[in-house]
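PROTOCOL LOG
Step 1. Enter all chains and additional molecules of the complex.
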Amino acid sequence: MNENDITVNLAPGSKIDLVDFENLTFGNVFTDHMLICDYKNGVWEKPVIKPYEPFLIDPSAKVFHYGQAIFEGMKAYKDENDDVWLFRPDQNYERFNKSATRLAMPEVPEEVFIGGLKKLVEIEKAWVKKGKGNSLYIRPFMIATGPGVLAAPAVFYRFMIILSPAKSYYSGEVKVLIAEHFSRAANGGIGAAKAAGNYSAQFYPTKLANEQGYQQVIWTDDATHTKLEEAGTMNVFFRINDTLYTAPTSERILDGVTRKSLIEVAKREGINVEVRPVLVSELIEAAENGTLQEVFGAGTAAVVNPIVGFSYKEKYYELPKQENSVALFLKEKLNNIQYKLAEDTFGWTVKI
Amino acid sequence: MNENDITVNLAPGSKIDLVDFENLTFGNVFTDHMLICDYKNGVWEKPVIKPYEPFLIDPSAKVFHYGQAIFEGMKAYKDENDDVWLFRPDQNYERFNKSATRLAMPEVPEEVFIGGLKKLVEIEKAWVKKGKGNSLYIRPFMIATGPGVLAAPAVFYRFMIILSPAKSYYSGEVKVLIAEHFSRAANGGIGAAKAAGNYSAQFYPTKLANEQGYQQVIWTDDATHTKLEEAGTMNVFFRINDTLYTAPTSERILDGVTRKSLIEVAKREGINVEVRPVLVSELIEAAENGTLQEVFGAGTAAVVNPIVGFSYKEKYYELPKQENSVALFLKEKLNNIQYKLAEDTFGWTVKI
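Step 2. Run joint prediction.
Step 3. Record the structure below.
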C-alpha cells in the first residue's frame, strides 16, 4: 500500500515515558495511535491513523445488539538489530476475512489490514521492546457501527487496529478444569470464527472454574462432552507416550496460528504429532497409567502455556514434572524464529 | 423508584413531527431521549435520561472484543383513553438479569430497569400511537464498557434504554428454511440468554436462506438436526391435528415472553397445547398426511407471525390456507389484552 493511501494525524506527544515496561499486565496499556477504516455504502473509505482515543458511536449500533464483532490477535517482535518483525500476518488476515464472512460482515482489503498494520507498527516502533517475552500485541478488529435494532446485518462497519505492549501472558502455574456441562461452540455455529460472542460465552463457566482454583477451562464438544477441544483462549496439546496430540480444527475449533506453527516446528524437530480427536477418556487413562507427560495451551497471547494439572469429575490429576519438556522446547524454537534468533526456514517472519 | 433518583436532561425540542408514523420500518427511528446508567467499581451510578445521541467509548471496550452485550425487547401500547401500558415487564426484567449472569455481567437493579423505563416511556408518551399494530418498541441493553483486551469480564458496564416507534414487524408472506447444517446455540452455551453474540451467528445462514427465497430459518438442535427449536428472532409453534406444539425452553431455546403468554391464552381458550420436543420428521409426516394445519412464529417484535410454507432437504412444503387460523385468533386475543380492548384476566399489563 502506498503510504499516501493512509491519512496520518500524529499525536502531539508520546505517553511512552509514563509506561512501566517491566510491569505490564496484558492488554491494559495502548500505544499513542490507532488505525480506523470505515465501510460505508459498500465501500471501504481511506484508512486514518490518529491518536488513540475514545470514539463516538450510536446507541443502536448493531455491534451492541447483535454482536457483529470479530478480531485477530497478533504480535510484533524486535530483533537485536532493532528491526521489527511480524509473525505470519497472512494467516491472521486470511482468518479475519473468514470470520467476517461467517458473521455476514464485509471482507477487509489486504492493503487496509496488512498495509495499515505495517504502517501503524512502523509509527509505534519505539513501543516494541527488545528481549524475549517482550512484544507488541496487535489487535485488529471490526465492529458493526450501522444503526437500527432490526435483527439483520448492519450496513456500516468500522475496522480498527490498536496496539498494546506485552510481556508474557500468563504467570504462575496453570491448572485447568475439563468442561462437563458448559461449552463454547455449536456444530454449525461460529466457534471457528474469532467472533466476540464466542468469548462472552466462556466468562461465566471460567469464573466458576476460577472459584474452584482453576485458571482455565478445557472445552469439550457440546453434544457428548467426550472430546477435548480447546482451552479458553488457546488450542490445546497433549503429550502421551512421546506423541503430541491435538484436535483437528473444525467448525467448533479455532484454526490457531500458534497451533499450526507448533505442529510444523514439532515435525521438523522429529517429534511425533497426531492431529485427531482426543477423548477425555484417553486423557484420563494416560494420566492413570503414567503415559501422560504434558498438557499445554498454544495461542498468540500465551504462545505456549504449560498446564500443571487438570480436574475432571471432581478428581484432580497432577501432571508429572518434566525434565525435558516438549512444551518449553517448542516454545523456545518458535520464539527463536519470532525474535530472529534462529533461521526462519519456514519463511514466516515479515519485516516491517 | 423516586423520580428524583433519575437525572433528567430534556432535549430542547422534539423531532417527532419529522417522523412519518404511517411508514415506519422496524427499529430505524428513535425517540428524543435515552436512559443511561453506568456501573463502576461495583456500584450502579444514578441513571440519567438525556437526549438520544452517540456516546464516546474506548476502542478497547470489551463489548467490541469479547461480546459482553445483552438486551431485551419489549413494547408499550396506548389504549383508547390515552393511557400507556407495558406488557409483563417483570418477565423481561427477570430474563435480563439471567442473561447478565450467564455472561458474567452485573445484575441491573429493578429501580433502574423497571423504574427507568417507566420514567423514560412517560416522557416519550407522545411517541406511543393509538391503534392496533402501533406500539413503542423498548430496547433495554447492557454493554461492557470496561477497557482492555485481556479475555476476561469487564469491570465497567453501561445499561441503556432506547425507544423506537413501531408498526407490525413483518410484512408479506413468510417462508422458512429448516436448518440442516447451521445452528444458533450449543448445549451448555448461551442460547437461552438474550446475548448479542447469538444473533451474529444467525445472519450468515439467514442470508443464504434469503438468497433462496426464505425470510427466516427454523433452527434445529446442533447435535442431530432432528429437533425443531426456534426461528431467527421468534419461538415457533406447530398446529397439527388441532393441537399446538412448541419446544420446551432449554439452554438452547429462549424463554420467550410472547411464547409463554400464547400458551396461557391458548389454554384459557380451550386449545390443546403440548410443550415437548418437536421432531423434523413429525413435521414432514404431518405435512404429507394432511394433519399439519399451521406453523407460526411468536416474539415481541412480530407478536405472531404466520408462516406460509417451509423447505427441508430442498423440498418445499406449502401450508394449507386456514379459514379459522389459530395463529391469528391467538394474536387477536393477545393484542386485545395488550391494547386493553379485553379484560386482562392474567394481570399482565402494567400502567405507566
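Step 4. Note key features.
Residues 3-167 of chain B form a domain with the D-amino Acid Aminotransferase; Chain A, domain 1 fold (CATH 3.30.470.10).
Chain B has two domains: 3-167, 174-338.
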